[in-house]
Amino acid sequence: MADLTLEDRIIFHDAIETMEVDFRNMTFRNAEGCVIAPEAWDRFALRGKSTNVAHSLGTVRTGASEDTLRAIREQAGREMSRANIFATRDQAMQALGEMRKRRSDSGEAVGGAFLRAENIHLRFGGVKAITGVSFHVDRGEISSIIGPNGAGKSSMLNIINGVYRPQAGTVTFLGRTHHHMRPHEAAEQGIARTFQNIALFKGMSVLDNIMTGRNLKMKANFVLQAVFWGPARREELENRRRVEAVIDFLEIQHIRKVPVGRLPYGLQKRVELGRALAAEPVLLLLDEPMAGMNVEEKQDMSRFILDVNEEFGTTILLIEHDMGVVMDISNHVVVLDHGEKIAEGTPDDVRADPVVIRAYLGAG
Ligand SMILES: Nc1ncnc2c1ncn2[C@@H]1O[C@H](COP(=O)(O)OP(=O)(O)O)[C@@H](O)[C@H]1O
Ligand SMILES: [Mg+2]
User: Fold this and answer.
1) Is 348 inside any structural domain?
2) Cβ 306 vs Cβ 196: under 8 Å
3) Interatomic CA distance for residues 304 and 291, integer angstroms
4) Residue among 120, 127, 165, 286 whose CB has most ligand 1 atoms within 8 A, to mutate
5) Whose CA is nearest to atom 25 of ligand 1?
6) Nearest protein Cα to ligand 1, atom 10
7) How far apart are CA 176 and CA 211, in angstroms?
8) Would 84 be classed as within a structural domain?
9) Quick one: which atom of ligand 1 is closest to the CA of 164?
10) What pLDDT score does 82 carry?
């Protein structure tokens, strides 16, 4: 065991872009000790990758000692990546299998755009909230809508998930075109969202709030559940299992029983993300997930958003005020101002666009 070579300890699972590392009988106490040997980098390079983090190669680790485990977690926290650590190889392989399945589920081939909004017009009485906006979101990407207050960002999410009905325009999702996407259709097709103002039951526990995200997945109704033990019971167990997985993923085990109203704001936002994740969405809409957070909370939330995207393959459309965050984590950015699209492109394109700069300076 002690003379396992690095070659033996590192296995690449190319299909799911994941590296498996066996840490048995290895110990390091800090990130410096965790430096991967040159021959491992060579193997990365053979696959056209220079690091596992920058190229979103997931990592699972098995057999890490307590010290090693702590060092990995700290390092992962700094790099905004996940520290997937499993006690045994069987557990790791099962987790990898689930990861692969989630990725392929969310990647079901559908021709054409993943999500496309076409020429959307939305008015509230005399207020023009959105005027002739078209944009698209590609599968598997993190896209952002930015723009000053009142630009129409939240309204656009409300159209995509069927809460608002536009006067004109269409939303095409997974190959189906809707003049008015209805909320239940949106949910059934795998669209989940969080809200600008946290929408949780403040008196209920974290666990119960996240459980409400499973409502759509519960086939047996509540009366049946109360009367019959069989299928309803099985279903409840499955729901519990999923919810526990979400709680683990978001690292909120320690507050699972706490009423949401008693939690600090940043954690409430995380719970709301959990509620959305419990629905196993294909498209996740996040309305200002980091608003009102301090720097550390923003970093945590950014990491979770990146992790959701990477590990579950979930496509994400988010609204965010903090330009820095948006630019860091987005593949694609749409800029709205006074209900109109004024720019669209990569973060670099958008950042350099004089029209965008003017809109932001103008809004103060
Ligand atoms: N339900 C509504 N009723 C009336 N006006 C609304 C409603 N929702 C949004 N608006 C108006 O539409 C415009 C865009 O709002 P919103 O989409 O919330 O902007 P953003 O999220 O970019 O700040 C604003 O003028 C807002 O007052
Ligand atoms: Mg808004």
Assistant:
1) yes
2) no
3) 15
4) 127
5) 150
6) 129
7) 29
8) yes
9) 1
10) 65
